[in-house]
Amino acid sequence: MRTSTYRFIYWLLFLSLPLVSLATHQVGGQLEMQAIGDVPGHYRIVVTQYFEDGTPGIARQASTGSLGIFRKSNNSQMMTFTVTETGRRQPVIYANEFCAQQRNLKFVVSTYEATIQLAPSSYTDPQGYYISYQTRNRNSGINNIRTPDQVGFTFYLEFPALMQNGQLVSYSSPHFGPINGEYVCIGDAFTFPFGGTDPDGDQLRYSMVTPLDQKGTGMGSNAGVSPGPYPDVSWLSGFSATNAIPGSPTLSVNAQTGKLSVTATQLGLFVFAIKVEEYRNSVKIGEVRRDFQLLVIDCPPQTTPAPTVQLMNRPQRRLTTICQGDNAVLQATINNDWNYQWRRDGVNLSGATSSTLTVSDAGEYTVLVSPKATCSKAGTSDTLAIRVIGQKASLTSTGHLCAQTGSVTLTATADTGVAYKWYREGQALANPVTDSLKTTQDGRYWAVLTYTSVGCTVTTDTTSLVRSAPVLAKIVSASGQNRICPQDSLLLQSSGGLRYVWQKDGQIVTGTTGTQYRASKAGTYVVIATDTYGCEGTSPPLVVIQLPTPAVTLDSIPAVCGPNNPTYTLKGSPPGGDYTGTGLTGNTFDPKTAGVGDHKLSYGVKAAPECAATVVSQTAVVSPIPTIQLADTMTTYRGNTFTLNPAYTGNPNQFQWTSGQYLDNATSANPLITNIANDITYTLDVKNRYGCEAKDTIRITVYIGVWVPDAFSPNGDGVNDVWDLPGIEAFPDAIVTVFNRWGEVIYSSGKGYTLPFDGTLNGVSLPGGVYAYTVRTVPEKPVLRGRLMLVR
């Protein structure tokens, strides 16, 4: 069956790198993240880019570039790294070079690589991570977005957390093969196998999306190290992600295979983007965004050549088998007016432009032919299939050799009908003779495969098995000691692995798999550490003891009255502890230093230096000495009833009055004196609860009444210059009033006769003569009335 294609994909697939100084001549590319497989988190980042050849832009292409890795959940930067161009740039091959040259379609491919080491324990976010790069500019001739020469690129790759639920996650991104140089003819149905393969066997899903613009306006080698979110490009009117190329139908991608298809109805250069999502067990784990361009041209109506192909010396066979290292010759129809371009598995082969092709690699071969010096459609031949015996002879391995344990199963991948011979360090192994070998020894291994049907003998690649370093599990205590303090626990810390199993006295401690464990009981502790390969190591045992709680005592401290007392030596047990409290120097308590008050004195003993002390306390009382504020003497009148109200300090709580005559209660702080009749002296003795004591006395003079003289002589001779009223002091509320002959008040004492009448009124001496008076002592006694002679 012959098919005609005369199509060119004008690609733009530039992903994740700041590799272009001036971005007007970029044509395509992709980014891959390949697990190297030796150490978890060890990756090779490969960037493949396509550029116009022989343009100013390609001359300024940088040989290195910077990428950034970011956390999806918060767009925080995890790291940046640099890729470097790895080798010589190769041309993109077209089926019709004449047409390609006419339309100035000449492109090269370059590869950039870096190896990076990611710590799986740092990449645990369930939302995953992404790599992105931004640059500018797009081709100014693009016909479906606004101001394309001012629009940049953002290319994007997502990958999952490398450790989930304590388990390592294997991951490699999709792989995309090389491209052919083809273009799209307007009005012709166009398809292109654009799907990739996934190294992990994950499901790939394809969809059309809007390309991403550059975030910001920066350029240069660090322009791509910038976190998301990123803006979309701006479509011209009538265009969208699902209508990027006008057609019937428009450009679309098969969701399962990734095949592109379109029957274009408009000439031009059109940009679009495809999102490739990875699913594992129906859960999305990764994503790659790819930017592209398709060039649609008007193909001239020419007769399409119809080449035939055959195997030289085997003209009737469409499939042939050769041994690895042998070759076969493919022969196409010879026509001196034709251009030839051979393909293997749909990909144009470099330099394969003659009517014959010598091949040594397995695959499906076709040849495309087109007239020389004419830009027309190319004709495609039927397919010839070459099967190479031994080409798939490679070794894969599962398992791991730990320091002293473990095993690895080697499997030779080959076709059927094979006899196997295994070798280790150049020595043939007697067994097995099957396609797999299980071994517990390190060394270099390979297998020799003999294909019995054709007699081909092939040697596989060599695999070197190396034991990993021992897992050196270790337990230490945070305190540096192996003892648990009373009423406490001991923090144990482990190291040497990725996961841990703790044991106490030979039994697994459930629920503890981290690096730390808090031991609350004595016992023998061991930790089994597991490294990233699953190898285990057991720590030396750590014996943990429980320290008993010290039996701490502190003798009671007798109370003292006042600070002026001797020092006191405290007695704590067991010896060697620490005394704390006010007034203490060492174990000596000084009441004078402490002062009056209740003082908490403590004694603490540690079971070990790193432990908290067990503390007991006693109260040292320096009691205030009571004081009594009580008048020495007082006067009253016979029959009076009143209360004695001394003021106290020092908190006395015991009171004793002697004598107790006339008192209602001789042990009261404030006794009531009832109907006092005679002079009396009282003695008061008080004590507080600590026995601190004070005494005081009061002499009470009792008057029968007031003696009122009937004359006095205020003449300044020092005798009877004032009107004295003996006994008036017994009546503190007494009111004395003096009147003149007209009944006018010339003197009034107010309550109490504290300023006796001196024969003056407002500082002016009154004339001698007779004056009337009243003396009011207490309400229950009659008012004393009489006449007073003032003698001058």
Question: Please, could you describe this protein's structure?
Answer:
This protein has 792 residues and is an all-beta fold. It has 7 domains: 11-297, no CATH class; 312-389, Immunoglobulins (Immunoglobulin-like, Sandwich); 394-465, Immunoglobulins (Immunoglobulin-like); 474-546, Immunoglobulin-like; 553-623; 627-703, Immunoglobulins (Immunoglobulin-like); 711-790, Immunoglobulin-like, CATH 2.60.40. The chain is 2% helix and 45% strand. It contains 3 helices and 68 strands. The radius of gyration is 56 Å and the shape is elongated.
What does the secondary structure layout of this molecule look like, with pairings?
Blueprint: E1 4-5, E2 26-35, E3 42-52, H1 56-59, E4 64-71, E5 77-85, E6 90-91, H2 97-102, E7 107-117, E8 129-135, E9 153-159, E10 163-164, E11 167-168, E12 184-185, E13 189-192, E14 203-209, E15 252-253, E16 260-263, E17 268-280, E18 283-297, E19 309-311, E20 319-323, E21 328-332, E22 338-344, E23 347-348, E24 356-359, E25 363-371, E26 378-380, E27 384-389, E28 394-401, E29 406-413, E30 418-424, E31 427-428, E32 436-439, E33 443-451, E34 456-459, E35 463-465, E36 474-477, E37 483-484, E38 490-495, E39 499-504, E40 507-508, E41 516-519, E42 523-530, E43 536-538, E44 542-546, E45 553-554, E46 560-561, E47 568-569, E48 572-573, E49 578-580, E50 584-585, E51 588-589, H3 591-594, E52 597-605, E53 614-623, E54 627-629, E55 633-637, E56 642-643, E57 647-649, E58 652-658, E59 672-673, E60 680-688, E61 693-703, E62 711-712, E63 735-739, E64 745-748, E65 760-761, E66 764-765, E67 769-776, E68 784-790
Parallel strand pairs: 12-18, 20-27, 37-44, 46-53, 55-61, 62-68
Antiparallel strand pairs: 1-26, 2-3, 3-7, 4-5, 4-8, 5-7, 6-7, 8-9, 9-18, 10-11, 13-16, 14-17, 15-16, 17-18, 19-21, 21-24, 22-23, 22-25, 25-26, 25-27, 28-29, 29-32, 30-31, 30-33, 33-34, 33-35, 36-38, 38-41, 39-40, 39-42, 42-43, 42-44, 45-48, 47-51, 49-52, 50-51, 52-53, 54-57, 56-59, 58-60, ...
